[in-house]
């Protein structure tokens, strides 16, 4: 149909679905090809091979299965279409990739269970409402798709035991003798093991995997290559055979360095173990199942409308959305104090020392790993030598010794003792970078993806008073592009950022780097001549080192509070509340300066998610009640006692009390807000809880 120019934008709505769905922005091949090439902004395109064998022994590409093949292909191409029309979702690596993965999981589930569904005989139209509900039930039973769809743990265990049985015992013994580290099982691996293979068999199973070339090197040692293993275990799948799965640490070993990364087990970051899928994720899979109904538009054989509606209305027993645990306020505030003081005392010295190391390596055309301990000590200078620095990195073998080290980092106790004794320059730079991350993370309340992707080149505006970042959830109707936003930044955080930028600019000027990196890029612990761009892994590793360096407190279970950005987002608001309530946090009050508290609070309400701010208010009120400081929360305390039977708040679990307060807020019984006033000391405020209904109504 030819439309006039002014109505040309309606043209996509007049194209037949059978033609529209033959293409997708991620699909680089012709729809009818057996092997699809696809890319979601990957460095190299990936492939989907439709030449699969079905449960009846026939090929999916055989003429008799043509309807099933077309149905599955159309299902994938339609999975990334926008619900608001024939266009596609915006971000290739965001919502579109997510929907594609969900659809691939459903396709693989059908193929893996093809015998029960008799796909080769009845195709997609043979799927009943009960079949679709069964898929949703199994997917919802665990948050791990590797288990719900691929039964990974059982298959991997069976594969390992079968491989052990079929391997030559003499060859296995030879591997163990030549690679002593392959038989080392750490206490942490034993504690975390859920694979349920007798530990006495583990060394030989590792050796068997090694002989089959099923290991690959990672930053923290040799791990089973789960992608290669998946190719062997899932030949019947379209997508899963080419995807990595969960790595079980009991199968990992390390030749070059110790396998530990943290001093203590981490305190949980969510409110309890989630045994089932969260409801928001389940909704995405329910959408993926219901989307099979698009095939009726084409038309291609598909489950009946009634079957799809039954699945759409099915609601399994799901866990509640896992709420991130709120860190104790004193832990975060003390951490913030450590971070700022570490910057003021050592930030300049450490970054300048690294620049001198880089300059020396550039002059001599060597890698930093080639420097001896004595050379490192001479380069860093007298002040840092007295501070404790004796070597470049504790993850580098000594250049003065050729003997075998079972673990470069040594024992866990020794390593973290040396860390706090300031032995390694690179570790201290990572600690300092973690300090900057912590400060910026608390004060800016941004997502981790927005922070670790900050560029040293343009993360500050010309005035150096605004942080520029790409909003992680701003791609809708922007063709997948993130919206660049600016937020005012506290001077101390800006000063820390400028220290890291200054270091990188010097490295570029002397030719050590060709260009500026991400803001939180750090030296490679192995001594390579580079600066490693920040990633989610390195971002969290820097925070872990910071927490171990300053010995963050342990909880009652002996677990350390390792800070994570998603836990810190509410703490700028918490900082504001605490500074208005009591005056014992000198460093934090200094950071807040003498700005009008109304202006600060307006910024908080404009820049923070409502849920994050509500959580901060509830957490603040809970801590005040637990500490007995309830002068401004007496009505709230009475309501809590009447509603939940609480008598002594000092004995109540902080997380439970916070949940109860949030429930009252959501139900409209109470409002927690700052009250602003002016007295002889100037502009002040206090946080109070106001009852929105009289207590008798509760």
UniProtKB/TrEMBL annotation:
Key words of the record: DNA recombination
Report if keyword Cell division is assigned.
no
Which protein, by its recorded name, is this? Integrase
Indicate yes or no for the key word rRNA-binding.
no
Source organism superkingdom = Bacteria
Name its species: Pseudomonas amygdali pv. lachrymans str. M301315
- Gene Ontology molecular functions: DNA binding
Question: GO biological process: what's one of them?
Answer: DNA integration
